[in-house]
Amino acid sequence: MGNEILLSEELISNKIYFIRNQKVMFDSDLALLYGIETRILKQAVKRNLSRFPEDFMFELTKIEYDSSRSQIVTLKNGRGSNLKYLPSVFTEHGVLMLSSVLKSDKAIQTNIQIMRIFSKVRQMLLDTTDLKIDILQIQKKLENHDKNIELVFSYLDELSEKKENETPRTKIGYKK
């Protein structure tokens, strides 16, 4: 790593967005992290377009871009309203493929960090999915308990009604 300053996890994870049901990063954010201009990143991708199929990288539609602008609080680093071209976004696999296109030491180290963050995000999603499943199971048990408690109370009500409506029984046996 040498003199390279590691980027913080927070900085990288704040640049991961959810578009088209995928975790993606904007071309301008990646260029910023790699320490290059966005146009240079776009040129490198354009020269190697066969390496970036639709599930690795895609260009946002105008509607998606406008929607992302409303979700992203700060619109600096090339994402102003006067864009000449719509931004491209890279999925996790696309970011990984960028490492074969951008060969500087900084790009390689940045890519390693980004891949680690993507892995952490994936693990967090898996962990929350497990939690959701556990919560659903607990809810189901509680619903069953509620039903059982209701049943017990209805039986108690029936018993108390029988007790109230019961006529005194005549005693049998020896009389004193």
From TrEMBL:
Keywords linked to the UniProt accession: DNA-binding
GO molecular function terms noted in the UniProt entry: DNA binding
KilA-N DNA-binding domain residues: 14-101
InterPro entries per record: KilA-N_DNA-bd_domain
Domain of life of the native organism: Bacteria
Name of this chain's protein: DNA-binding protein
Species this chain originates from: Flavobacterium alvei
